Amino acid sequence: MALAKLNVKKGDTVLVLSGKDKGKQGKIITAMPKKGKVIVEGVNKVKRHTKPGIKAPQGGILDKEMPMPVCKVMLICPACSKATRVAHKEVNGKNVRACKKCGEVIDQTK
């Protein structure tokens, strides 16, 4: 199975395209390129029954975000605030991500 490069990174704001959380927006907490999945803040939550331990001394039922396929999310451009596909451009000798709709560079240059 060939793995495609992810067009989203940790910290990007994305829109969920399908599933029970369709239409919700959130920030990416974790990106897993080898699995082709991302964890989005406040999206795809499940309940986990846990015993008392170090992380949860009380135990009980906890809400947890689960990974979802990266093909079910779309990047939101910070400049035009619309869900967009990602273009790749070369700026000052570096490859950066850009918005397909407005053409604005998404990656911050440091």
Tally of separate domains = 2
How many individual β-strands? Answer: 9
Helix content: under 10%
Uncertain segments are: none
**Sequence of secondary-structure elements:** EEEEEEEEE
The side-by-side strand order for the widest beta sheet comes to 6-3-2-1-7
Please describe what this structure looks like.
This protein has two domains: about 80 residues, SH3 type barrels, CATH 2.30.30.30; about 30 residues, no CATH class. A five-stranded antiparallel β-sheet has the order 6-3-2-1-7, with no helix packed on it. A two-stranded antiparallel sheet has the order 4-5. It is mainly beta and about 110 residues long.
What is the compact description of this entry?
The chain is an all-beta fold and 110 residues long.
